[in-house]
UniProtKB/TrEMBL annotation, chains A, B:
Sorted UniProt keywords: Aminoacyl-tRNA synthetase, ATP-binding, Ligase, Nucleotide-binding
EC number annotated for this UniProt entry: 6.1.1.15
Gene Ontology cellular component annotations, sorted alphabetically: aminoacyl-tRNA synthetase multienzyme complex; chloroplast stroma; mitochondrion
Protein name in UniProt: proline--tRNA ligase
Catalytic activity: tRNA(Pro) + L-proline + ATP = L-prolyl-tRNA(Pro) + AMP + diphosphate
Keyword Nucleotide-binding set for record: yes
Region described as Disordered: spans on this chain: 51-72
Stored PROSITE patterns: AA_TRNA_LIGASE_II
Family annotation (CDD domains): ProRS_anticodon_zinc, ProRS_core_arch_euk
InterPro entries given in the database record: aa-tRNA-synt_IIb, aa-tRNA-synth_II, aa-tRNA-synth_II/BPL/LPL, Anticodon-bd, Anticodon-bd_dom_sf, Pro-tRNA-ligase_IIa, Pro-tRNA-ligase_IIa_arc-type, Pro-tRNA_ligase_II_C
Superkingdom to which the source organism belongs: Eukaryota
NCBIfam families the record matches: proS_fam_I (TIGR00408)
A molecular function GO annotation: proline-tRNA ligase activity
Length: 552, 552
């Protein structure tokens, strides 16, 4: 089974080719015992013997695990091989694993908790803006997909088809939904009659299936989880407003929750969703400077309502086709978080989406220190938990504190609290930031007193959140080049950067850029420079600059 | 499309056969314009002209809808045809609609909101008891299903199979998950190594597919939503404890949240889940006195761990197979709520799971009363909302207050607040209970003052919640007959009741009962009568009484 599916699970990036398949496989599929401190790459000084943290050899009542033998479980340095690094992190942080079917993924609890945090935020926002959740069946008659011309063209190559049900060949093949516009319109046609039924604004959280050939955990899998919003309106203006509202919501989410400074804009005609009149997108720059399309919002115009006869009677008694939108964010976003913030040590999670915002590591040497330290740790945990902070104690006795420091840094927990016997007697704790390695990120003597501690930790979480966004923003900005000619564009792309330049050339010329450089128009950003512009390709007047990049 | 799938959507009940197919179809599939008050069956006096509520002919600035012509949209009386009544409620309350593929269901926002309330409660409880959410792929290699002998026997007749992916015939057919034990064990085998990895306790919220021949919205659909918990333990005792813990959680949920007085117990061998050593169940009595299996928890023993080689090294260094459980509650539960509490007027929702706990109906006659009434309604809404109560104002101007009263009674909202001009000047409101029709359920002059109103409404919601449970419990108890002989059992079942009697007979005799009476052993209840017992069938000594009933 394993051997059969491996080829498809290597990355799209050329770097991946350099990594032996065996290595990728073993990294991700072997039993993932937590890593030995000694086996991490040592860019950041994660074991600090000079302070409260004890040396790894500290006596604790644990059988010695055979960590020394597991030298192969290092995390590949990010700079050396971004794709191998990405897969290593997913394996070591236990975010996901491969499913038995080629290209499928099991989302493990720690990875799923990030998705749950995304859901919790967006679900509230969707409801606040008047959308209701509901659920559509995932089996769609094949004939539905064929009704909208560009839709079938876009999706038919990647459909999974159910042909047998209950032991019998089916009369009509069923499509396992790749997206739900067709079945949504089939139902909307039955529910919408007059302008009083509009706007109709719904959302569903669901799994979708696209038979992708080249897969990568989170970024592109045969089956993934997402939310898909679908709305119907009486006027094109309302539909446009809705499509823009939702891409704005995604943008705000990306900035404020995920600390990802996406660039929002409009897709080129070539890159527009199959069946949409206009597609808006948020584009994120990953750590390897490739772009990730992290969320989209489509103005569908009347394309689906015409194909499915979704009409309403307007206030003047006239029959009209509805104007529609759809918009989605998927588990791909988790991949975006990993690839935006992670470093050689491992994952680095934005506090607002981290399953564990604060990890508490109790430290003791002698048996008589144990109770005092564990009691203090437990009380700190309760204090923070009561204040709504996601906190966990790592009190396992099989691992040294040094090991735990590394483990939770690798898992990307934004803050660590260390409590040793000296801290207990001082009534204070040590707080370390994941985003600032070593002594610089460490503060001693923070009072355990509830209100002081809560205020301090909340403040620090906010600081880490802002700092991640700042860092990602400056990385992004230093890797976007303004270009005036195709030569400059090619040069920027060849350097692995994004190119931004005026564009009013044809679809053919856009495809030529893709063919020759590997870069595509990611979007025409909403934020546009002032002044007159000349198309970088043709020299003709251009209204807008476009953003070009290689992408996932 | 519609005609093709109708046969399967009629009910299993004999009553359904009496309802012309055309009628069932039209009831559920026609555009569901809200019903006219006049067209409701009139068991409860829902339009009360003698009190604050104005007569329907009150002038409001609405075009008169053509309600009089929609005489066919009545709700079939429950006593006349339970199945038709059930389908009418689902259609009229907009809980669900038929999907385009035979046997599939679209869960509409109001129905989905009930499912969300179920999720919110259970999700917290699962986490409190140490379970983590995660996600497994829905495509399972066909060979997996074949590994556990009784599992394949139980599930193979109802599988949906994907045979084509990305335009190509697949080498191995893929099963769209009917349940996930096989793929879970495949992954557990990779993750579990030593006793330190145990217990492993996870849950997923997912869709599942079973190619059922006879379907019914919520109760049995080709695709449904559920949560499935899966755990692995080091000892059989721990697995048994977990299986019992989860059925207890379901029982508590049913009683306290859904106001459904389920009977919890153990399934007979014949009725045990395909692949389980022991199945625990909660059985609910519907309004037609048929049993609904509303949730199950399985002790899987080592059946799947042996089939999939899921082993761990115990504390003595010995390799052992893990002991497992799985447990699930599905969208079927929504059907159980409808069929437990609904009456001729429509749905009746337990406050703890109602999407709208309080509906506020503003009432005015003259234009100059409008603002005052709407302001008061809005302020009442805000007050209640701030107190965590799910409240909605129905301020549409196209419908009369009388129409709204009926509509929201049909939708099952537990409480209604009426606010008219006289109420505004008195600073008070009128509160009506859904579960007590007419004047008896109506209280005048409840102060609008925040703390008074909130306390009053919370108290009333609790009362309604308790009252629904009491009513359902006394209905259940008056329909269970203690039997000592097969003759008595047959008589009870023939009367449509449940029969409870001592049982120690064979599987063959159990199947004979099913064949001859249509009833099955629903469970051996946990609560057993004291004293010695003789099997109702054989006269041999019996340890336990069993509960027999016809079921969905």
């Amino acid at each position: 089974m394993g051997a059969l599916r491996l080829p498809s699970l290597t990355s799209l990036s050329s770097a991946a080719a350099a990594v032996p398949r065996h290595h990728l496989c073993r990294q991700l599929r072997l039993p993932l015992r937590p890593l030995s401190a000694a086996n991490f790459s040592v860019q950041s000084s994660t074991v600090e013997k000079d302070v409260a943290a004890p040396a790894p050899e500290l006596e604790q009542n644990s059988p010695k695990p055979k960590l020394q033998q597991e030298k192969d479980r290092v995390i590949t340095p990010r700079s050396q091989d971004f794709n191998a690094w990405y897969l290593d992190i997913i394996a070591n942080a236990e975010l996901a694993d491969y499913g038995p079917v080629r290209g499928t993924m099991v989302i493990r609890p720690y990875g799923y908790a990030i998705w749950e945090a995304i859901q919790e935020y967006l679900n509230v926002k969707f409801k606040e803006t008047g959308h209701s959740n509901m659920y559509f069946p995932q089996f769609i008659p094949y004939s539905f997909i064929e009704k909208e011309a560009s839709h079938v063209e876009g999706f038919s190559p990647e459909l999974a088809l159910v042909t047998i049900g209950g032991g019998k060949e089916l009369e009509e093949k069923l499509v396992v939904r790749p997206t739900s516009e067709t079945i949504v319109n089939h139902m909307f046609t039955q529910w919408i009659h007059s302008y009083r039924d509009l706007p109709l604004m719904i959302n569903q959280w669901a799994n979708v299936t696209r038979w992708e050939m080249r897969t990568k955990p989170f970024v592109r899998t045969l089956e993934f989880l997402w939310q898909e919003g679908h709305t119907a309106h009486a006027t094109p203006e309302e539909a446009e407003k809705e499509a823009l509202q939702m891409i704005d919501m995604y943008t705000k989410f990306a900035f404020e929750q995920a600390a990802i400074p996406v660039i929002a804009g409009r897709k080129s005609k070539v890159e527009t969703f199959a069946g949409a009149s206009r597609t808006y997108t948020i584009e994120a720059m990953m750590g390897d400077r490739k772009a990730l399309q992290a969320g989209t919002s489509h103005n569908l115009g009347q394309n689906f309502s015409r194909a499915f006869g979704t009409q309403f009677t307007d206030e003047n008694g006239q029959r009209q086709h509805v104007w529609q939108t759809s918009w989605a964010i998927s588990t791909r976003f988790v991949g975006g978080i990993i690839m935006t913030h992670g470093d050689d040590v491992g994952l680095m999670l934005p506090p607002n989406l981290a399953p564990v915002q604060v990890i508490v590591v109790p430290i003791w040497k002698k048996a008589d220190e144990r109770t005092g330290v564990l009691d203090a740790a437990s009380s700190v945990k309760q204090t923070l938990q009561a204040a709504g902070i996601k906190v966990k104690i790592d009190d396992s006795e099989q691992r040294t504190p040094g090991w735990k420091f590394n483990f939770w840094e690798m898992k990307g927990a934004p803050l660590r609290i260390e409590i040793g016997p000296r801290d207990v007697s001082n009534g204070s704790v040590v707080v370390s930031r994941r985003d600032i390695p070593g002594k610089q990120g460490k503060v001693f003597g923070i009072s355990m007193e509830s209100s002081t501690l809560v205020a301090y930790i909340k403040g620090k979480l906010d600081e880490v959140q802002s700092s991640l966004l700042e860092r990602a923003t400056s990385f992004r900005d230093s890797n976007i080049v303004d270009v005036c000619s195709y030569t400059e564009l090619k040069e920027a792309i060849a350097q692995g950067k994004w190119a931004r330049g005026p564009w009013s050339a044809s679809d053919e010329e856009e495809l030529k850029v893709k063919e020759e450089t590997g870069a595509t128009i990611r979007c025409f950003p909403f934020e546009q420079p002032q002044g007159t512009k000349k198309c970088l390709m043709t020299g003709n007047p251009a209204d807008e600059v476009a953003l070009f990049a290689k992408s996932y």
